[in-house]
User: Fold this.
Amino acid sequence: MFIVATSLGSFAVPRDETADRSSVSLTILLTTVAFKLQIGDSLQQISYLTLIDEFILSSIAHVIFVVLSHALFYLASKRNDIKQWNRFRRLGGGNEKGLGKRNLKKQFDEDVDERGVGI
Assistant:
């Protein structure tokens, strides 16, 4: 039960640090699988699922859902960044400041940081 609750702690990691979020979630997934193997060795071998088996399998499903949600959040944030970048270019962002294409991306990132958009 504690391992499953710990998987929700990965949402405390900032949204833009997807690698850290994923590493926490995958570590918890590996811990859950190791727990399943440890419990499986200590229980009697039977052909049907017991209550503990169902609990551990549902725990694994929960942690997999958390890992997939981090991946979906990452893809959605990248899609949002692309939309903002295209809107920035369409509105002529950076041109009034005399910036070339090379510094346009840098200016976009600074404007996003100033406004807090996309974070």
